[in-house]
Amino acid sequence: MIVLKSAREIEKMQEAGKLLAAIHKEIAKMIKPGITTFEIDEFVESYLKKHGATAEQKGYRGYQYATCASINDEVCHGFPRKEPLKDGDIVTIDMVVNLNGALADSAWSYAVGNVSEEAQKLLDVTKEALYRGIAQAVPGNRIGDIGHAIQTYVEGEGMSVVREFIGHGIGATIHEKPDIPHFGLPGKGVRIKEGMVFTIEPMVNLGEWKTKMDSNGWTARTVDNKLSAQYEHTLAITIDGPIILTDQD
User: Fold this and answer.
1) Residue 98 · residue 52 · CB < 8 Å
2) Using an 8 Å Cβ cutoff, are 193 and 139 in contact?
3) ∠ CA 102-105-106, rounded to 5°
4) pLDDT tens by residue, 117-127
5) DSSP secondary structure letter of residue 142
6) Average pLDDT over residues 230-240
7) Residue 53 bridge partners (DSSP)
8) Alpha helices of 136-228 — where are they, by DSSP H?
9) Strand runs labelled E in the chain
10) pLDDT tens for residues 92-136?
């Protein structure tokens, strides 16, 4: 069942989203060779505590950290670790903020120092794919319009869209309906309605779209060990179109 959100609920989620966006802005200043994703995770947890919020994913199905930190060929759900990031790495930091019971979810990929042209193109294409998907998230369109816009753009750039992990509704819990694939056919799927709140979060690979799971049962990585990137926003659908609740601008 898809739960439509009231204006008041969306307003509360937007406050959570503003806090999450502020954290990503701080992380952007921290990212450099030598820092560890464990240090970033500790910073996030401390920042949330100072602002009266909590990390919703900590404890979710036994997950132990405030963030997911996925490096290079890791697609998603990488564990924060104490090994320093190296010049040329790319890293995705993903988190869900709970502020007074309202949730917001956003992932962002960062270049560490000087990255290759190939890696920079991956980052640029993935971010553009996110916003092309958001542009389709208007009342009257269908979920397939979002996925189609993302898939056709990414594949046109010679890259691939991960199929196993998708966007999702969000509200009282992290994962709600509707599911938001980042691939698909236009005019197919659930019709988008005012009051929906969901994430769009394309994961884009330089090589094959398929993933494999690490032995920890959480971390997914590319099957060919090529780079992967992800950008994610939480958005609310209004009569005038989508509001990006985690907007960093």
Assistant:
1) no
2) yes
3) 145
4) 999 999 999 99
5) B
6) 97
7) 99
8) 143-156
9) 53-55, 68-71, 74-76, 90-99, 102-111, 160-161, 167-169, 176-180, 197-200, 203-205, 211-213, 220-222, 228-230, 233-238, 241-244
10) 999 999 999 999 999 999 999 999 999 999 999 999 999 999 999
- At 225, list the tokens: 């060990």
Write the single-letter amino acid at 207: G
Q: Which two tokens stand for residue 77?
A: 């759900």
Q: Which of 65-68's residues contact partners 24+ apart within 8 Å by CB, and which partners? A: 65/41, 66/41, 66/95, 67/37, 67/40, 67/41, 67/93, 67/94, 67/95, 68/92, 68/93, 68/94, 68/95, 68/107
- What single-letter amino acid sits at 153? Y
* CATH number, domain 7-244: 3.90.230.10
Structure-block tokens of residue 93: 């930091």
**What pTM was computed for the model?**
0.97
Q: Please choose, from the candidates 116, 234, 216, the residue with its C-alpha nearest in 3D space to the C-alpha of residue 168.
A: 234
